Amino acid sequence: MRALKPGLTALVVLAALSIAYVVFWLFMAGELRDGVARWSEARRAEGYTVLFSRLRIGGFPLVLRLDLERPGLGAPDGEIPWTWEGERAVAEMRPWNLRRVEIGLSGAHTLGLVVAGRPVTYTGTVGGLTGVLVMAGAWPSSVEIHIKDLDLSTADGAERVVVKRADLTVRRKVGKTSDDQGSTLDVRLRAEDVRVPERLSLPLGNHLARLTVVAGLLGPIPAGPWPQSLATWRDEGGTVEVEHLGITYGPLSAQATGTVALDGNMQPIGAFTAKVQGFRQTVDALRKRGLVRRRDAVTAMLVLGALARTPEGGGPPTLNLAITVQDRTLFAGPVPLARLPAIEWKDWPPAR
User: Own/partner pairs for 258-264, CB < 8 Å, 24+ apart?
Assistant: First the structure.
């Protein structure tokens, strides 16, 4: 018996720890279920719709898995009405770390919007739609969204949205003060083979072959009504530093770095250093769409064409130049290229 005593003690301790963990897991599962109920009621009280046909909690012993069938969310009576319904939503987290949540929303989706005063419904599937949230207080410190093979269209097929692949990462610097150096928010985006409805009449067509963005928001945007808080951010020196911008869109292929800010009228201003290919075809396409005047197009082709260089070993002419936006005018080098539409900020300027 003396020889068996250490083993029996270990078994008793192990059994007690196992029972304690089971109780802990069940407690956390109950807290998760109650948290979903509280969150749903709070959103409904704010005027949102929150739907699901079935809620299940599983994943024992190492995971807390929240499984919702036929989830739905929307603001049908909001200023900009919208509704969304999915086939299934799965959220997973570790019982000892509820701050990190992995979400899966693959499958069938229905999205309802109001476009130009008329309701439009898109239906389709997403091969992969996943996300990761890491919470730090009331707001996430980081968000990751990964989309693969998204294909949504209207019932008549007249409008279609396709995303072959897109990856978005947003990281917030938690606990940052105004004396710290560097960005308060980092954004990384990579998108491939994106198609939007022709109705949007984008400058170079509805197909974006590739877009990559690496940028940082300098200066925190204070809490408060929008866009007054954005104006405060601007007045305190807030800018967006674009470390890398790469785009392949229609005939245009460009790589750029630069800075974006807001002027006194809350309109974007910016300065970029860019490496551009396909500029002649791009200017001509903008002219045909009426976005660039014929006189400006001719001037741009003459001036910028003289600055272009053919790479060693051949290839399309490449243009290294400054791209600037000032007073709602887009400049390519010294040439004013296009007049940009004004951004009409809601409720701007604020009442005095």
Answer: 258/323, 260/325, 261/234, 262/230, 262/231, 262/234, 262/238, 263/326, 263/327
Total domains in the fold of the chain: 1
Torsion on CA atoms 59, 63, 69, 74, rounded to nearest 10: 170
Is residue 236 in a domain?
Answer: yes
Q: How confident is the model at residue 9 (pLDDT cuts 50, 70, 90)?
A: confident
pLDDT value at residue 179: 46
Q: Which residue range is the domain that position 339 belongs to?
A: 227-352
Cα(23)–Cα(41) distance, integer angstroms: 27
Element (H, E) at 283: helix 279-288
Beta-carbon-side half-sphere exposure of residue 90 (alpha carbons within 13 Å): 12
Contact criterion met (CB below 8 Å) for 131 and 142: no
Question: pLDDT per residue over 47-82, tens digit each?
Answer: 999 999 999 999 999 999 999 999 999 998 887 899
CA 228 to chain centre: 22
**Which tokens sit at 86?**
């999915």
Confidence of residue 3 (pLDDT cuts 50, 70, 90): low
Does a structural domain hold residue 141?
A: no
| Contact between residue 101 and residue 91 where contact means Cβ atoms under 8 Å apart | yes
Distance, in Å, from the CA atom of 263 to the CA atom of 96, rounded to the nearest integer, reads 47
Q: Between 279-288 and 294-307, two packed helices, what is the crossing angle to 10 degrees?
A: 180
In a domain, 164, yes or no: no
Whether 167 maps to a domain, the answer reads no
Write down the pTM of the prediction: 0.86
- Residue 137 near residue 99, CB atoms below 8 Å: no
> At which residue do the structure tokens 């390519």 appear?
332
In tens, the pLDDT along 287-328 reads: 888 888 888 888 888 887 787 888 777 778 888 989 999 999
Long-range (24+ apart) CB contacts under 8 A made by 288-291 are 289/203, 291/203, 291/338
- The model's pLDDT over 242-297, given as tens digits with 9 standing for 90+, comes to 999 999 999 999 999 999 999 988 899 999 999 999 988 998 998 888 888 888 88
